[in-house]
Structure formats: C-alpha cells, structure tokens
Description:
13 helices, homodimer, 7-stranded mixed beta sheet, alpha+beta, 5-stranded mixed beta sheet, 23 strands
Amino acid sequence: MDRIVSLSKRRGFAFPSSEIYGGLGSTYDYGHYGVLLKQNVIDAWWDAMLERDDIVALDSAILQHPRVWEASGHLAGFSDPLVDCRACQRRFRADHLEQAQCPHKPSRPPGQGPDCDLTAARDFNLMFSTTVGPVQDAGSTAYLRPETAQGIFINFKNVLQLARRKPPFGIAQVGKSFRNEITPGNFLFRVREFEQMEMEYFVPPDEAEKWYRYWIDERLSWYVNLGLRESTLRVREHEEEERSHYSSGTSDIEYLYPIGWQELEGVANRGDFDLTQHTRSSGTKLEFVGQEGERYTPHVIEPAVSIERIFVAMLCDAYDEEVVGERERTVLRLHPLIAPVKAAVLPLIPRDEGMSSRARELYELLRKRHTVEHDDSGQIGRRYRRQDEIGTPWAFTVDEQTLEDETVTVRDRDSLAQDRLAIADVPAWLDTALERPWRSPKA
Amino acid sequence: MDRIVSLSKRRGFAFPSSEIYGGLGSTYDYGHYGVLLKQNVIDAWWDAMLERDDIVALDSAILQHPRVWEASGHLAGFSDPLVDCRACQRRFRADHLEQAQCPHKPSRPPGQGPDCDLTAARDFNLMFSTTVGPVQDAGSTAYLRPETAQGIFINFKNVLQLARRKPPFGIAQVGKSFRNEITPGNFLFRVREFEQMEMEYFVPPDEAEKWYRYWIDERLSWYVNLGLRESTLRVREHEEEERSHYSSGTSDIEYLYPIGWQELEGVANRGDFDLTQHTRSSGTKLEFVGQEGERYTPHVIEPAVSIERIFVAMLCDAYDEEVVGERERTVLRLHPLIAPVKAAVLPLIPRDEGMSSRARELYELLRKRHTVEHDDSGQIGRRYRRQDEIGTPWAFTVDEQTLEDETVTVRDRDSLAQDRLAIADVPAWLDTALERPWRSPKA
C-alpha cells in the first residue's frame, strides 16, 4: 500500500488534503490524473446504468430534511460504540478494542494496559450535523447525508410518475456522502468524505431474490470488464448478524487489497424497509399502482460503491514493477478505458525542429478525440517512464525516420513492443486499439 | 420564471428537495433530464478548459483545515449583516431592508411598520460549520467550503511541481460549495448548496490586466457558442466599493433573467491576495521560482460560475411558446450539444409490429453513440410535444412508408420541417447535425 500511496502522490493522482496546514485527518485532494481516472470510472458506471432502458438518473441534495434521517433509522441507529480511557484520555471503538493499542503499552489492547480505566461504551452518531438558516435552534439542524440512497427513496413517487416506468426499474445517482469515522485510514480506503455511486432497483416483492442475484453478477462482470483480475475479486455473502437493520440479504463484492480481502461494492436486498418507513413518516404513499389497480410496495435491490474504493482497487490491481534490461520500471497496467491519458506523443529529439513540429501536428490531431499528452521535456527514457507510471497505454514517437517516410513508432505500455505505423493511420489505429477487449498481463 | 419552474418540475429537470417532508428551504433535486443537461454543461466546461495545454484539473475536498478560512478572510469577513425585530421576532438582512416587507404592514419595509423594533445589525457568517472527529471541541470545528477556489490556492505549490508548468497556467475544478444564505430564493438562482466551476489562472503580475480582459472575452464567447443569445448577455464591471476584499477588478457576465440583469459568471482579478495570505498563514512559500532564479507571487484571474445559474439561464433562454396551426406548443430551444436527449425514435403506430420493430432497431443503433429516446406511448402529437418540452432537437418517425422504402421522417424541433431520410443514413446524418453551428431562432 505504501508504494501505491507514494506513486499516487508523486504523480498527482491523490494526496492528503490541506497539507500546507498539516492536513485534516483522512481527507484527500485529487490531482490532474486522479480527476481524469475518477471521471473515467464514473463515466463507465453511468454508461452501464443508462445504456439500459429501465434505469433513470437522479441528483438529490446533500442537505435534506432532518426527518429523512429519522425515518431511515440513521438518527437512532447509525452509530459506533465508543469507550474513553480515563487514564490516557484517548477514545476507542468498543467493537474494535482488540485491534487497538494501549498508548502506554502498545503490545496490549486498551483495557489491558497498566493504568487503563475504560468507561462504558457510548453510541456516537456518524452523521455530520450543521445548522441551516440564521437561527441556531433544534429545528434548523441538518445532517450531511451519510448515503445518497435516501435521496432516491424520498423521490420515488416523483420519479415513478415522471419516468413513466413500472417495476422492475432503477434510479441511479452519483454524489458525495459524509461519515464522521472515528478511525479513518488506509489511504482512501476509509475517509470521511467520499463519492458514492448508488442505484436503487425497485422490483415486485416476489422477484427480489432473483434480482438480488442478478445484480451481484452484473456488478461483478462490470469490474472484470474494466480490467480487474478475477483472482482479486470474490463475492462474500453477509452472515445474518452482520447485516444492516434494513437488509434482508447483503453480499460484498470484495477486492484483495494489500490489507486483505475487503468490501469493494455492496449489493443489498433492502426489501421494502425504506419505502415503508418514509410512507409511515411522511404520510405520502410510496407504492406502485398498476393499470389494473394492483398495488404494492416494491422491494429494493441496491448496488452501492464509493469511487474511492474503486480508485484504490484500480491502482492496486494495475501497479507493477519489473526489470527491463538493466533498469527497473514502475508501470500502471490500467485498462485503456480507465487510463487517464490514452496516448503520449513524443518527439525523440525535442530540439529538432522537424520532429518537434511533426509531433505537435499529430498531437493536435489526436487531442480532438481523446485525452492525449505531448511531452518534449528531456531524455526519451525518462518520458517513457513517466507515461508508464501514469498508465498511458501507448506512446507515439516521432524520430529521424519519420522525416523520411512519415511513419512513427508505437510503443505498447505492457509488452514494450515497438512497431512502426504511418502517421496518417494513427488516429484510426488508436480508435481501434481503445475498442479492443483488454486483460491484465499481471499473473 | 413561474413557467420555467413549472416546466422544470413537470418534465423532471429540477424540483424542490425533500418534498414529501414539506421541503427544506431552497434546496433542489435534479431529475433525469436535469442530470443530463447539467452533465452536458459540465462536459462543455471541462472541454473548454482541458483542450488548452495550460490548464490542469484538480478536485479538492469539501472539508478543509479551518485555518484555510482564517487565511482566506472568510472566517472574519464572509458574513451578512442581520437585524432582528423584537416585535415580530423576524430576521432581516440589514443591507436589504428596503426590499423586505414588514410582516404586520407589508407595504412598508421593516423598521417602518407600526410596532417595528429593530436591533442593531450583527454579522452572521455564511459558512456552514460542523464538527470533525468524536470530540466536540473548538479544535475540531470544520466548515463546508463556501467556494472551491481556496482548495486550488492551498495546492498551488503541489500542482506547480507535478504539472511542470509556469505562469501563465491555470487549475480548474468543479465541485459543490455551500453558503448559509439568509434569503435564498428565485428557484435555483440563490440556493444554499450549489455546484461551482472555477478556474484559477496564475500569471506574472505585470500581465494580470491583460489576462483579466482575455478571460472576460473567452467566457463570454463560451456562452454564445453554447447558444445563449447575445442580446441576453452583457458584461458589467464592478464599481470599486462593490468589489470583494480580495479583488482588484471584477466583471460580471450578466444574463437577462426574468428577474432582470443578474450575475451569471464572475471574472475576478484576485491579485496576489490569496497566495500571499496562505504563505503568511502556513509558512509555505506559494510563489513561482524560474530556472534563472527569478521569483514572484503570481497574480490570479478567476472565472467562476455556479452550474445552477447556467442551468436557469439555459432554460430561460430556450423556453418558447408558439401557436402552430390551432395548437399551442411549449418548446425548449436548447443548443443540441446541451439538450439532454439528442433525438427521439418514434413508431407512428406503436401497435404495428413492423413499425415497432424497425423503430427499435434504429433506436438500438443510435443509442450506441448518443443519448436518444424510444417512445411508443400513444398518440404521435403528444409524443412530439413531450420531446419539444425537453428540448430534443430531432425526432425520427417510422411510418407506413418506412416499411416500403426504408426511409423515415426527420422532424426539426425549431422549424418543424419534416424531411425523409434513408434509415441507413440516419446515424451519419445525426453526427453531422450535432456538429453544425447552432443559433437560437428566438428573436
């Protein structure tokens, strides 16, 4: 993980936020390549959702009415149990004591150190709260949403009418959520501010189990199609006692992170819990009424993932080091669709005016269709290594021969094979290359 | 404005948030077409920024270190003056009293009603605050950012190194910001939660004025190219006393909203205010050092706009009503690049199996490249009107003749002209149509 974090910072994918002020526990800023990579992931997710006729998009507000969180159960139940140590004044998660260290005796967990004096556990709600409007009274308290899903449920009736759909159909959303985690950490793996991609799929109650299985398979295939190796993915079904209060079935699509198998995406069968709760709490009937008068509260299947976890999984799965000749190189073997830059255009000798102008021309041509880079900043080997580290699948190099026969070399990031190609053919070649199925060459 | 709000709700562009719970003052949720329209605007903005070699992307966190806001001046100065009325317990903006109404005597402003008893004005900070981490003490107070810009300034050094750029160069960002407005309102025009598109352009101090003028022109052209009529746009330079504390020159690109000329986008010359403040406050030198050892603090030109204001301007500029034959129609004359749906495919008689299957085929073909809709939901006139209201530029209709000669009609949203076209030519026809320059037919 340290190498991923270091590469990420060195190349500007993501780095600790507010760094010049000493940072702000576990929030991150994304640099240029991080923004591009994230956007490619979000685009691929929207494509998978909206290429279907049965899913529509929504974008609900982060600040919602406080009664939303009362109805959803978050106000009462979305909390971690905490204990304080009266001796060292530290605070720990009561359910994770065994993994924690007593600051006075790091070989032992809190409660077993020399002077440990732990309080009883108290619940600590994970929602950030704030005050809306000029008056600071209880009525104007609002919460930063801890999940985007509730914004979908409270708009169910609205969307049902507008979209003229009937179950099975889904509502998809991408947006920020916030959780005041007590023990954030592991790079972007557990952060207080994160971006979710959630889809709520509303189905007739007797089809819930079928669609639950269906979405587990669909989402797993999505990751495989984006280049994650099948050996690093698995599905793990939650035990009954592990499941959230609303769930009648949850499976994690897990990824083998450097810290072990961990949740990448969750697929939950939320049953009719949310629609029933909001119906009760708001007085608005959130149900489906068919043309023949049949009516029911749909059940909900929810695939939900944070972009941060995909981001880390993509970097981990792509990261590779190898010795080529006498040199070591670090390379990100990203799926070309996810790679922030699709191709680099490089003049072999930047000072050579002929090479430089030909490279410029090719770059201007390609950039109309794809995110490409032009780099004339020094030795060619260094420039290749930089592109390898940001995961650019192909580099087109303009050299002496280009000036004679109008061909360039194309270098493949993974195989390091170099071929020659007519300049005129490069745009079509790149289009075709980007459409080819891709599999990770990592074992 | 009422008609825009009504269309927006009826067709699911945007509607009040948390509506089943009575709403939450001035926050909005975006429905399917709203999400698509917003995304088209964001994509067009990113294209304009990243098609340049001198601008890179950033995505900084919403929660930043509290000292960021101390240094930026927001903690001390980002406030509105408020007065309370002891008689009616209401609160008003002291600087907008003349536009407000005394609740007891609505023809008079507060302070001139029968029992008015106003307090002296007190400053009310517009930043939302919250508490990070498990302990609620002063040290862990954090603010929801009121602008994305500061996230760019505090990363200046970082990005300068990573991007290997020198002034003039820019850092662009899109993301949510929050302001606890006392008097939000006018649909999406003044909301508490909004999405900004900001670009900070760092320049040598003696070039600041030149680039300030340059970016006013660039941004104005961007709106014209996206179809806003030149007659509804103007540039207004701020008077000295109007300008923010950091600004040495600000111009608003104003749009003629139904409520009058109002700021659409601001272009500010922020000078070296922000980099100097953060250098002083953090101890990290935020300056440019050239290869020959020259060093200076760059000045900053900032074009900044919220997507909400563009969203409203686009809807207002596109909205049109006209009488066609004996019928009235409402039509959104959006630029095709901004229109949420590019084309509709309609079988004239949905029950006819031949028409239905040909329409399906054409739809499946087009959706691979563009956002298109297939609609077989009833009378053709109603389907056209629905597409007019969401601004779909073209409709392809499969009719009896299609089954004979493999042609379809193409209907133009603006002119209502109908032509016939071979089905096989439709994909290329649509590609070409989308690339044609477009100007609003509205007077």
